[in-house]
Write a structure and sequence with these properties.
Layout lengths: L2 H7 L10 H4 L3 H4 L1 H21 L11 H12 L3 H14 L2 H15 L15 H38 L4 E6 L2 E7 H21 L3 E2 L9 H6 L5 H11 L3 E2 L10 H29 L3 E3 L18 H23 L10 H6 L2 H20 L1 E3 L1 H9 L6 H10 L5 H9 L6 H9 L5 H8 L10 H5 L12
Parallel strand pairs: 3-4
Antiparallel strand pairs: 1-2, 5-6
Helix pairs in contact: 4-5, 4-6, 4-7, 4-8, 6-7, 8-9, 8-15, 9-12, 12-13, 12-15, 13-15, 17-18
Length: 466
């Protein structure tokens, strides 16, 4: 056993313990060291931006090699750097000021002593923090969560295509209903998830740089000739964030709340998928591949449990609870600011971690299942009563009086056989052509446009009625 093994076993929470390997890719975004690195990035880019601004003469210009050396401070940020900032934090008990002091040391080492007083010039801690968190969340969304979701959606597309024509008994209210195809049901989730992902990615994360009360007071009093509104917009955009000028001391977290809500909606869709797959496995519609050496039960040797879908469901619930808290709590701050958002923001990585873990487990579950087409067909053939809808609808077309009531009296609550249906059709006073049409009905063929719907990828291309 290694030290790392024992560290995981001693971890307070499972994301840093049992599931550490599954969510390790998020550590470079949400760990304390990562937060230090993002703060250094904001401070460095702000210093470079100041050096390039016209009219800010107290900040000497930086040559391209000097700018590269400064950017290397965050691009090559390592464990020793994080430990050094942490040491400053213990000394001054202020993590943003700790970054500033560490950065001043690095500038001195680089021979940039003429730029020391430009570090953190006129900023409040929130100017640095909100931009650091915005970058953190934006990049974790794009570089970690999105690829995981794209893998999920690709597997759904695969299943939709492979099983587009595989007929399946539908169940509404848990009861046998008009048949569908397995592929069509997977495509429902594909399209729902794709829309939700598009909505999530369309959210532009905002950032602000406007001082201690959001009025650029320190900036303006020191350099009144500078158009600080223009400067702020340009700087925030240079970080590939959406600038917001009108705030209190803190960025209002509205777009972060919107992102949390979008992730929560994705989680709701995937919870629905997880529960449906669990039921399909329970009904024998999906068969799981047994992994060598894996145990399904401590006492029942035969079991292959749907643990990946159950794990996904549980972690989606944990993520959803945190995301709901964030979207409700973070946009609320007393007067010009209170600090209650700070400790909450530090838990963003937990929500992202539970999301990522759930996406991975759900994908693993979907990759392990195969459709038992014979089982689906047997179950469908065992419920010929689902043809009652088809029969009464054709009779309506023919002008037959009250066919719904007739079929209701014949079929509701009864276990019918194919022979019962055939005899009932023979008793109907209809033409031979209509009788032949009705006798030709079969549950497996009564799937409407399910195959076409299973293959539908762009609802915008569907023809309209104009």
């Amino acid at each position: 056993m290694t030290t790392d093994d024992m560290t995981r076993l001693a971890a307070l929470g499972p994301l840093d313990g049992r599931y550490r390997a599954d969510v390790a890719s998020l550590a470079s975004f949400f760990s304390e060291a990562a937060l230090f690195r993002y703060r250094v990035r904001v401070e460095v880019e702000y210093l470079i931006f100041l050096s390039r601004a016209r009219g800010i003469h107290f900040v000497p210009p930086l040559t391209p090699p000097q700018q590269a050396a400064l950017r290397a401070l965050y691009r090559q940020f390592g464990d020793d750097d994080a430990l050094a900032i942490a040491a400053w934090d213990r000394r001054v008990n202020h993590d943003v000021k700790a970054v500033e002091y560490w950065l001043r040391e690095r500038l001195t080492t680089l021979g940039l002593t003429g730029h020391l007083e430009a570090v953190h010039f006129a900023l409040t801690s929130e100017d640095v923090n909100n931009l650091a968190y915005a970058l953190m969340v934006k990049e974790a969304r794009e570089l970690v969560l999105l690829p995981a979701l794209e893998s999920l959606i690709e597997r759904l597309r695969q299943l939709a295509d492979e099983e587009a024509a595989t007929p399946m008994l539908a169940r509404t209210h848990g009861q046998p209903a008009t048949p569908t195809t397995f592929g069509k049901e997977m495509n429902v989730f594909f399209m729902r998830l794709r829309r939700a992902i598009n909505d999530m990615m369309a959210i532009k994360i905002t950032g602000k740089l406007n001082g201690a009360s959001g009025v650029f007071a320190a900036h303006h009093v020191a350099l009144p000739q500078i158009d600080w509104l223009k400067f702020s917009r340009a700087f925030v955009r240079s970080l590939d964030l959406e600038p917001i000028l009108l705030t209190t001391q803190i960025e209002p977290h509205d777009t972060l709340a919107a992102l949390c809500d979008a992730l929560k909606r994705i989680g709701a869709i995937l919870t629905d998928l997880s529960q449906d797959c669990w039921r399909y496995i329970s009904d024998g519609y999906l068969v799981q591949a047994a992994r060598a050496g894996e145990v399904g039960s401590s006492t029942m040797p035969h079991k292959v449990n749907p643990i990946d879908f159950e794990n996904a469901e549980g972690n989606l619930a944990l993520a959803g609870a945190l995301l709901e808290l964030f979207s409700r709590k973070l946009p609320v701050s007393r007067l010009q600011r209170d600090l209650s958002d700070s400790t909450v923001l530090r838990n963003l990585g937990l929500a992202f971690g539970y999301c990522l873990l759930a996406y991975q487990r759900l994908l693993r579950g979907l990759q392990k299942v195969a459709v038992d087409r014979a089982r689906l067909r047997r179950d469908l053939d065992a419920h010929p009563e689902v043809l009652a809808e088809a029969i009464q609808t054709i009779l309506r077309r023919e002008g037959f009086a009250e066919p719904y009531e007739l079929l209701k009296a014949f079929s509701r609550g009864r276990a019918l056989t194919a022979e019962d249906i055939a005899r009932f059709i023979d008793s109907l006073p209809v033409s031979d052509a209509v009788r032949a049409e009705l006798q030709a009905l079969a549950p497996a063929a009564y799937i409407g446009l399910a195959v076409k719907l299973a293959q539908l990828r762009d609802e915008a291309t569907v023809g309209n009625w104009t």
